[in-house]
Design goal:
By secondary structure, the protein is of the alpha+beta class. It has helices at 2-24, 55-81, 85-90; strands at residues 26-31, 34-39, 44-48.
Amino acid sequence: MFDKLKQAYDLKKQADTLKKELEKEIVEVESGEIKIRMSADQKVQEVTLGSNPDPRVLKDVFNKAVEESQKVAAKKMQSMMGGLGGLTDLLK
């Protein structure tokens, strides 16, 4: 029982560290006059629009920023936590 609690505590500490790391990682995607900066925890940090932005391009740039932030988050999670190994051990 206490082993499982310790594993849960360790996993929580890893998750907190991962969250802080994801906040620091920034992806930047731009097309034409539109640029979006987003952290790997998917918080928009900055949006730069030109004088006459095309809404379709804005949508595409935003979706690409989300996709790139997800890739960064997945890589960071895999390297920091070894995938989901700690979680699957806890659920046994």
